[in-house]
Amino acid sequence: MSDSSNSANATHAVVLAAGSGSRSGLSRPKQFERVRGKPIVRHSVDSFLSHAGIDKLWVVIGAGQEELANEALSGCSAYYLVIGGDTRQQSVRNTLNAIAQSGGAQSILIHDAARPFLSRNIIDSLLAVLKTEAGAMPVLPAVDTMISTDGQRLGQTLDREKLRRVQTPQAFDFEKLLAAHDIWPEDITATDDAQIFQAAGHDIHLIEGDENLAKYTFPSDFERTPMQTQIRTGMGFDVHQLVAGEELWLGGMKIDHVKGLSGHSDADVLLHALTDALLGAIGAGDIGDHFPPTDAKWQGAASEQFVKYATELIAGKGGTINNVDMTLICEAPKIKPHREAIRANIATVLDIALDQVSVKATTTERLGFAGREEGIAAQAIATISLEKI
Ligand SMILES: Nc1ccn([C@@H]2O[C@H](COP(=O)(O)OP(=O)(O)OP(=O)(O)O)[C@@H](O)[C@H]2O)c(=O)n1
Ligand SMILES: C[C@](O)(CO)[C@H](O)COP(=O)(O)O
Question: Is residue 22 lining ligand 1, measured as CB closer than 6 Å?
């Protein structure tokens, strides 16, 4: 939000959240239900509050909804509460009065709280149109064959090329909208503000709507919340000491070498780094949290099971592994002759394709512990996709 909130030149936004949500079949008004981790009303409130083109935000709630609203909007910065009316139209009317009493506005964007996924693009487009037009709203094409009906039988098949589905926010010159509401007959219920504005003789410019801006109305809308893919990355790093008399396991493959790695389990430094990367991508701690080195149970254990365990945790959260990339840091043994076998084995353990697994190796130019062949280090990075509601 910008800081010119008291000026009559300001752009105000209104989030209408005073409905009862009777068609949703929920026990409380739908705008206070959580979707994608936030109450429905909170989504568009956050969209407006984070937009620099909006100077003042009004949230309209029903009488008696104060506690629900305070809870849903806790921590939000500046917004003003208005008590709505029995209909959407009346709720808008109450808000227009409140704005007029507080000094007026230049422009106003009126939005249904029941349309939570309001993008910055839509707000940008509406504000851009308002520079030259008095009214604007987002619309979508009608994709099905459209008919009229008496409720039972086919009336007429309509020309869908001329039909659009109307969304919010609807954006207006404030004074013109106020005057339009003043002359609209009180006994006629308008389902949106554009028709009231048009009836007063003004044009409405149409912008392209957004399918994600769909309104939550019926119970099925709550089951159809669009999934959001979250891309996560995790990183892992591990070092084990090279000692004579130990087996050398790297990436789940036993490798012939004069020394082997000592430590936790089979000390497969590469799979340990990979396990940490996978756990890191879902914020699930590190390998030591899940397989404590102090627990004798893991003595000599095959490290593949740690990788499989982390993979199952990811799957349990609805995640899929996009790719993993690892680097072994050692002077010897030379990794190249084993690299493809290690890659293939890790791809099998993770149940992903070979080209989703990369294994690389480098030396430290004989510097440090790796250069002196006292130990091997490994680093790994994993990228995963999480489908979130
Ligand atoms: N008296 C009302 C009625 C509706 N709205 C708001 O207008 C938007 C669109 O209305 P709708 O989807 O019909 O919501 P409800 O009226 O709550 O739903 P229902 O008709 O199923 O009761 C919603 O964000 C709703 O909270 C409002 O502010 N005041
Ligand atoms: C304003 C609106 O969302 C535009 O499509 C719609 O008219 C609201 O209708 P409702 O009956 O109040 O859900």
Answer: yes
- Known binding-site residues for a divalent metal cation equal 238, 240, 272
ipTM computed for the complex? 0.95
What would you measure as the largest C-alpha separation in the chain, in angstroms?
Answer: 93
Judged by its nearest atom, the ligand closest to the C-alpha of residue 31 is: 1
The helix, strand and coil proportions of the chain, stated in percent and rounded to the nearest 5, come to 35, 30, 40
Tokens of 217: 């109305």
**Residues 237-264: pLDDT tens digits?**
999 999 999 999 999 999 999 999 999 7
Q: Which atom in ligand 1 lies closest to the alpha carbon of residue 84? A: 29
DSSP result, 139-165: EEE--S-EEEESSSSEEEEE-GGG-EE
In order of start, what are the domains of the chain with their CATH numbers?
Answer: 11-223 (3.90.550.10), 228-388 (3.30.1330.50)
d(CA 378, CA 157): 67
- Token pair for 169: 């926010």
Enumerate the known binding-site residues.
Answer: 238-240, 264-265, 272, 286-288, 362-365, 369, 372
Give the number of whichever ligand sits closest to the CA of residue 190.
2
Q: How far is the CA of 65 from the centre of ligand 1 (A)?
A: 13
Q: Is 263 left (phi over 0), alpha (psi -120 to 50) or beta?
A: left
* DSSP states along 191-258: SSSHHHHHHTT---EEEE--GGG----SHHHHHTPPPEEEEEEEEEEEEEEEEETS-EEETTEEE--S
Q: 270 in ligand 1 pocket by Cβ < 6 Å?
A: no
Query: pTM here?
Result: 0.72
Mutate to test the pocket of ligand 1, among 24, 92, 95, 112 (most ligand atoms within 8 A of CB): 112
Contact 381, 325 (CB under 8 A): yes
Contact 326, 270 (CB under 8 A): yes
Pocket test for ligand 2, best of 14, 87, 115, 191 (most atoms within 8 A of CB): 191
Distance linking the first and last C-alpha atoms of the chain? 27
Note the pLDDT tens digit of each residue in 65-79: 999 999 999 999 789
